[in-house]
Amino acid sequence: VDLDAFITGLPKAELHLHIEGSLEPELMFALAGRNGLSLPYADVEAVRAAYAFSNLQDFLDIYYAGAAVLLTRQDFHDLAMAYFDRAVADGVVHAEIMFDPQTHTARGVPFAFVIEGLLSAMAEAQERHGITSALIMSFLRHLSEEEAFATLAEAESWLDRIAAVGLDSSEVGHPPEKFARVFAAAAAKGLKRVAHAGEEGPPAYVHAALDVLHVDRIDHGNRALEDADLVERLVGEGMTLTVCPLSNLKLCVVDTLDHHPIDRMLALGLHATVNSDDPAYFGGYVADNYRAIARARGLSRADLAQLARNSLTGSFLPADAVAAHL
Ligand code: HPA
Ligand code: ZN
């Protein structure tokens, strides 16, 4: 089989996907129309043309503005269904999707609309395609810990349907320590923990995600490579890194995919995975990320299979479900 078919055919989990980042411009226009909102863009091409970023914050400004078209349960349902349909076509058998409730509750959208729309799509996707999924509720790190606590309280009646809490948005200047108490509270409620660390932030933020937030996975983690002791620790702990190659390129974490460290991560023994992060904004879904990195770094089929296996073993699926996919 050719490489495209080989990649698509690998059973894989997607572990780093912001559902708001899967909002394609076509759906953005459809939802704006349905909700009687106007967009500051003439058409879909103008939206895509605006997607040129020089850093994380550039992207975040546009991404939060785009999410403003999401108002109803049906909007969140449609958003997630579009993602699941696309992910299934890429060979995704399990997806752990992040959502940012504060992006929506700050606009007056009830927390219940967000989570009920996502949960109904998750159930429908499983019924229709057999794909399983889990929710990761992410706190926006540019907001306060008090606001994160308020979000955790709003989630109280849905905690049995939330797998983990996460930490995203502007990294530099908002270190993990800021969220130590709310992550401890989430852990006490039985939630797993993930955090973006080492995307733009220094290796110290990765150390703090481990030591202070007690995370089960590191989202991104690229800058851990600057610290040999940290690499040794991540390898020793078998810590999963959810790496996002096309995101790294679009947000200038790497200057070209030819310099992407994914193969170095594997060679060091790091438990790296490949994910799409915000596929509608970064130019590709998960299989596009596998393809792009395979081409740029000359990955072997064994490397690609290893990355896909890592995604399943690094997921929050129970061991028997992981074994059934391997
Ligand atoms: N980093 C931080 N916050 C985010 C990202 C990211 O890559 N994508 C969506 N929110
Ligand atoms: Zn992310």
Automatic annotation (TrEMBL):
It comes from the Bacteria. It is an enzyme of class 3 (hydrolase). Zn(2+) binds at residues 16, 18, 196, 277. Its cofactor is Zn(2+). One of its GO terms (cellular component) is cytosol. Keywords: Hydrolase, Metal-binding, Nucleotide metabolism, Zinc. The active site is at 199 (proton donor). GO terms for molecular function: adenine deaminase activity; zinc ion binding. Substrate binds at residue 278. The record marks 220 as: Important for catalytic activity. Residues 11-326 form the Adenosine deaminase domain. Its EC number is 3.5.4.2. Gene3D superfamilies: Metal-dependent hydrolases. Binds 1 zinc ion per subunit. It catalyses: adenine + H2O + H(+) = hypoxanthine + NH4(+). One of its GO terms (biological process) is hypoxanthine salvage. HAMAP family: Adenine_deaminase (MF_01962). Catalyzes the hydrolytic deamination of adenine to hypoxanthine. Plays an important role in the purine salvage pathway and in nitrogen catabolism. Belongs to the metallo-dependent hydrolases superfamily. Adenosine and AMP deaminases family. Adenine deaminase type 2 subfamily. This is Adenine deaminase. It comes from Novosphingobium nitrogenifigens DSM 19370. The lineage of its organism: Bacteria, Pseudomonadati, Pseudomonadota, Alphaproteobacteria, Sphingomonadales.
